[in-house]
Amino acid sequence: MQQPARLVRGMCFGIALTLGLGLGAAAQVHAFEEIEAKIDYRQGAMRAIGGNMASLAAVIVDGVEDYRDNLALHARFIVDMSRDIPGLFPEGTDFGETNALPAIWENWERYEQLSEDTHQAAVRLLEAIEAGEANLGPRFREVGQSCTACHDDFRHRD
Ligand code: HEC
């Protein structure tokens, strides 16, 4: 009588294990997709910052006057988007299709500081634009240098 009972118990364990593994794998796929989506979001946000920098450069550096009225709009986007760059880098988003270096999570305070530097530089540029300052070049370059300062140490160069 003991044999079949053990068999049933064994089968139950087998089924539970299969289900458990199945669910575990599904959860893992889901978690991976979520990480990929977060990486897509931050890369999109970074490209948008880059696009706004390119538009600012066309007016401030290359002198395209037609779009001067849009300067504040572009600077404001960078001010807003750089308020929390570290928030775009939650732990665990350091693998897959990303150029984010693991050093980010090992030097988190410095990372936060570099993000704050970009934010403050963008705020100063926006203030200069709103004050109608004629020579915006130095303020613009400050923003650009702050981007490079972070990319140099924390972004993988292909
Ligand atoms: C605090 C660090 C930090 C600052 C400041 C920063 N970036 Fe980035 N940026 C990164 C990292 C890290 C990546 C790589 C992200 C990835 O691949 O997941 C990146 C990626 C990018 C990309 C490529 C996005 C893509 O297509 O994959 C662009 C463009 C970019 N940044 C522009 C800028 C500009 C312009 C500024 C300044 C206004 C700036 N970044 C400021 C850390 C920073």
TrEMBL record:
Protein name: Cytochrome C
An example Gene Ontology biological process: electron transport chain
Pfam families linked to this entry: Cytochrom_C_2
Signal peptide residues on this chain, from the entry's feature table: 1-31
One annotated Gene Ontology cellular component of this protein: periplasmic space
Binding site for heme c: C147, C150, H151
InterPro entries: Cyt_c/b562 (IPR010980), Cyt_c_II (IPR002321), Cyt_c_prime (IPR012127)
GO molecular function: electron transfer activity; heme binding; iron ion binding
Gene3D superfamilies membership: Cytochrome c/b562
Keywords: Electron transport, Heme, Iron, Metal-binding, Signal, Transport
Species the sequence originates in: Thioalkalivibrio denitrificans
PTM summary: Binds 1 heme group per subunit.
